[in-house]
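User: I'll paste a sequence; please echo it back and then give the predicted structure.

Assistant: Echoing your sequence first, then the prediction.
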Amino acid sequence: MTGRAAKSYTERRTVLDALLEAIDRRLCFAGLSPPDTRTLDDRHRAAILNASSDERFEREVNRLLLSLGTSHTGFYHRRRPRVSVNLALDVRLAPSPPDGARWAFARVGPGGAAARAGIAEGDLLVGFDDDDIRPPERWTCALGRTYELHVQQPNGAISQRRVDIPTTLRKLRTLANPTDTITATRLTPTIGLLRCAAFPGSIGIDTAQRISAAIASLRSTRLIVDLRAHAGGGIGGLRLLSLLCADRRGICYTLTRRALDTGRARDDLPRFSAIPRTRLGGAWAGLRFWPVLRDGAMAVSLFTEALGPQPFHGRVVVLIDQQTSSSGELVAAAAREQGPATVIGMPTPGRLVWAGTVGLPAGYRLAGPMATVYTWQGASVRTADLCGPRTHERMCSTTLSMNCRHHPVRFTAPARQSCGPCRR
């Protein structure tokens, strides 16, 4: 078979068999029980092989993948690349309170497809094209397509919104401007607030520079880092952790299935300890880590950049909530384990994985968690308890008061303007 889509029963069977083998051998299931692929095969084979169209075939395969319970997971053809709805629309969806009957827009990124269509935080998704999609079902969007969304506003009115998905991943990612996602506010002459909505970019060169500039502009001796509703991203968050720790120290490491099966140790992994300053440096880093990138994931250890002392060291608070995911969870986990900050908030969703893709016959690809992320002390970030429980009402109040554990100073940080679902 070539790069064309699988149309015959035999071709689809070959693709399905390769997919099940990849699930067995390549995907990581930290904190989850490995799936019984025979049971998955029995339950979904008929619907997958007898799908009425290529699009329906992909949809049925993605229904199988949904049952794995893993994030960052999907199936698509290389000529029809698909991305998660969160990435496509630049949103964060959460089950609507109190019963979780609908998907609610808990976060809407500025400049994304959803924002351009007039969708706001707190709106409910009641229809996606002709489909009635409800939690916990997740789905993907094809690049370059236009979708019709039926959205219910807080006042109960339902409207139809047309969203245009960019044609390439590059165009999609350029909508996430580090200037919009990293912002700094000086609350008092000594207290600074750094909000990080996401860490755009896989290596995060622009993100790292923005974080450094934002913190420098605050000139604060006390710092609040707001990661609530953090949408994830690349390893630009390493710069934030490096500014919270004066020295060079290990913060996490990743292990692929192959690394786990061969018993590789943390100290034997390649080290990533500096975010490049230029695009040329980024290209060099890509060449250096190509041996571990070629399999779609990395077995690597991450170290802080040893940027030296900062005036706020020992007086830092990190805020997280139930919408803090992916790289935001890594920052919170490392801050709690290494001790440079007090972490306050609610349990996070456990969506930190190192995602990659696996090639399948007929030009199809399987995306999913290709590596498990561990804190430096060996805890899986997916299942780590990053902070003590806090009530939802407390985190969505007008102000949030806290005591720095290192100094008996009480200060107040403005909370986000209530989370989207709470506006209802």
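The chain has three domains: 9-83, 84-166, 176-356+369-423. Residues 388-424 have pLDDT under 50 and may be disordered.
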